[in-house]
């Protein structure tokens, strides 16, 4: 399988890239910073420098040529304001989807976040900082755009609060998950399993929450 990961230098992305490359998949990571290419090489991932905030659809479509699946793992990151939450977490995800359709890529996995339903219909959750509300709104907007498309098999994964703990190998994967914690390494393992389902079928549930749990990853992915 040929997988292209947008935001290829992120923590989950590097773990996912290493897992996929380790089993023989061809993995390409899109990054903004040329200084990140060596880290991708160390993970077995071929890096391509591409800034999704300034790139055009045809440019990104060229990067996706021949891919079986794309993963959106990019993010504006800590310290960014509301404008960048929209330009990266929403608009860049949409640009990647446009490019995937143009390039004939069949499957798209969006790494989103638990909590996005709290801002649906313009709601403002109590006790949540304004910039995080903007982040949730950007993720929700990306989800809604992607799930409305008919030219892509779309999967949306909403991980709980992320940790750098070692992988447990067991998770709770269900549309109703809306709280908890989960190791990034377990998120990466679930992503790889969902990609297999999106590419080869049967397709999983379109929107899934993820937290630490007691079901082995392979079994959890098979159930959905």
TrEMBL record:
InterPro entries: NAD(P)-bd_dom, NAD(P)-bd_dom_sf. It comes from Kineococcus aurantiacus. Transmembrane segments: none annotated. SUPFAM superfamilies: NAD(P)-binding Rossmann-fold domains (SSF51735). Residues 7-196 form the NAD(P)-binding domain. This is Nucleoside-diphosphate-sugar epimerase.
């Amino acid at each position: 399988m040929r997988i292209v990961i947008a935001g290829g230098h992120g923590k989950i992305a590097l773990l996912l890239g290493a897992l996929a490359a380790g089993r023989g998949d061809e993995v390409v990571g899109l990054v903004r910073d040329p200084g990140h290419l060596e880290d991708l090489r160390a993970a077995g991932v071929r890096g391509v420098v591409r800034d999704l905030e300034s790139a055009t659809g045809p440019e990104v479509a060229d990067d996706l040529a021949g891919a079986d699946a794309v993963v959106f793992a990019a993010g504006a990151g800590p310290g960014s304001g509301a404008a960048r939450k929209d330009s990266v977490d929403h608009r860049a995800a949409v640009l990647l989807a446009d490019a995937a359709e143009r390039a004939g890529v069949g499957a798209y996995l969006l790494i989103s976040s638990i909590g996005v339903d709290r801002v649906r219909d313009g709601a403002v959750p109590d006790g949540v900082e304004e910039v995080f509300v903007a982040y949730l709104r950007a993720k929700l907007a990306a989800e809604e755009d992607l799930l409305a498309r008919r030219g892509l098999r779309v999967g949306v994964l909403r991980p709980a609060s992320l940790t750098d703990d070692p992988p447990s190998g067991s998770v709770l994967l269900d549309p109703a998950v809306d709280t908890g914690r989960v190791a990034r390494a377990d998120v990466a393992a679930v992503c790889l399993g969902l990609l297999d389902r999106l590419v080869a079928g049967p397709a999983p549930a379109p929107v899934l929450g993820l937290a630490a749990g007691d079901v082995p990853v392979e079994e959890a992915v098979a159930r959905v």
